[in-house]
Design goal:
The complex is a heterodimer of chains A (about 110) and B (about 110). With about 110 residues, chain A is an all-beta fold. Helix content of chain A is about 0%, strand content about 55%. Chain A has no helices and eleven strands. Helix content of chain B is about 0%, strand content about 55%. Chain B starts with a strand and ends with a strand. Classes of the chains: A mainly beta (about 110), B mainly beta (about 110). The interface between A and B is medium-sized, with 22 and 19 residues.
């Protein structure tokens, strides 16, 4: 099946720094990529929807200036958490859809902000 | 009101037991329905799609009732390896194509 990778799988950073997370579709071109966040014992919450070459669409309550999304190609989307705070510590998961709108999830990135 | 509601559990059952999970969704225009499985600290993985006629995959049976906006998952002959969180997921293609709405998940622990 289709494969989506994320990098890094785990990152620890200091408060106030920025962290970039990459999401790649390895064997297909992703028409759309989604970024989710999951806090402990909570469901996945969609943060934003990203289409290649256009601005991401953010969900209500998600600050677009804090969570910068770049989708420069059909196989790569990046999420940058700017000026990270401890409350940004979470599990960030991307997913990518192919032309049939099947959705494939990346393995997730665990962010810890100290 | 949340798009997808699930009983969070936890469900603790012995090996060999039958367990059922329920889920309701709020958008009657929803078009696709799924059950995902998520292991601790891992990404969700598709367990099965849910069709209007009901469908079965080995020990797993999924049912959909569009009139009641209700989805169920039945696991028979539970195995230790079934221990995970089961996510009810709905796709509303009327809005952003491919956008998925996740339930909070139902935690299952199967004990020997």
């Amino acid at each position: 099946g289709a494969v989506v990778s994320q990098h890094p799988s785990r990152v620890i950073c200091k408060s106030g720094t920025s962290v970039k997370i990459e999401c790649r579709s390895l064997d297909f071109q992703a028409t759309t990529m989604f970024w989710y966040r999951q806090f402990p014992k909570q469901s996945l919450m969609l943060m934003a929807t990203s289409n290649e070459g256009s601005k991401a669409t953010y969900e209500q309550g998600v600050e677009k200036d804090k969570f910068l999304i770049n989708h420069a190609s059909l196989t790569l989307s990046t999420l940058t958490v700017t000026s990270a705070h401890p409350e940004d510590s979470s599990f960030y998961i991307c997913s990518a859809t192919d032309r049939d709108y099947e959705q494939y999830f990346g393995p997730g990135t665990r962010l810890t902000v100290t | 009101r949340k798009e997808v509601e699930q009983d969070p559990g936890p469900f603790n059952v012995p090996e060999g037991a039958t367990v059922a999970f329920n889920c309701t969704y709020s958008n009657s225009a929803s078009q696709s329905f799924f059950w995902y499985r998520q292991d601790c600290r891992k990404e969700p993985k598709l367990l099965m799609s849910v069709y209007s006629s009901g469908n079965e995959d080995g020990r797993f049976t999924a049912q959909l009732n569009r009139a009641s906006q209700y989805i169920s998952l039945l696991i028979r002959d539970s195995k230790l390896s079934d221990s995970a969180t089961y996510l009810c997921v709905v796709n509303d293609r009327g809005s952003t194509l491919g956008r998925l709405y996740f339930g909070r998940g139902t935690q299952l622990t199967v004990w020997p």
